[in-house]
Please model this.
Amino acid sequence: MAILVMSILLAVAIGTAAILLNQIKMIRSMGDSVVALYAADTGIEKILYDNPDPEVVVLGNLDNGSTYSAKKVLPNGTTCIASYYCIKSIGTYKEVRRAIEVTR
Model:
């Protein structure tokens, strides 16, 4: 009887630990997701501030280890349906990627 009770308690403890570890990984990746989103936003701001060219690609690295890749495209046959242009930016931090698209 004691072995049965101990094995049930062990199974509950292992199950709880597995759930807890998955939640910790998810919380850690949410922080990385925010950094990647802000890196993508930096790419958008970089194009809006520095590049009046009709079509341009900007790549950059930030001090916190994140990177961004932003591209301004005209709406001629692309997925961009804006009246002037759209900017697509992808931010990457560690293994997380987030994207933003801005139309004008």
